[in-house]
Amino acid sequence: MYPQVEPYAQGMLDVGDNQHIHWEASGNPHGKPAVVFHGGPGSGSNPVWRQDFDPDHWNLILWDQRGTGKSTPPASDPDTSMEHNTTQHLIDDAEKLREHLGIEKWLLMGGSWGSTLILAYAVQHPERVSEIIIPAVTAGRPEELEWITRGLGMFYPDYFEAFRNGVPEEEREGNLARAYNKLLNDPDPEVREKAAWDWNKWDLSTITGGDNDFTGTRYEDPVTRYRMARVVTHYWGNDCFLEPNYIFDNLGSLSGIPGVLIHGRNDFGSPLSTAWEVARRWPDAELVILNDAGHQASDGGSMSKAIADAVERFR
Question: What region holds the AB hydrolase-1 domain (predicted)?
Answer without folding.
Answer: 35-297
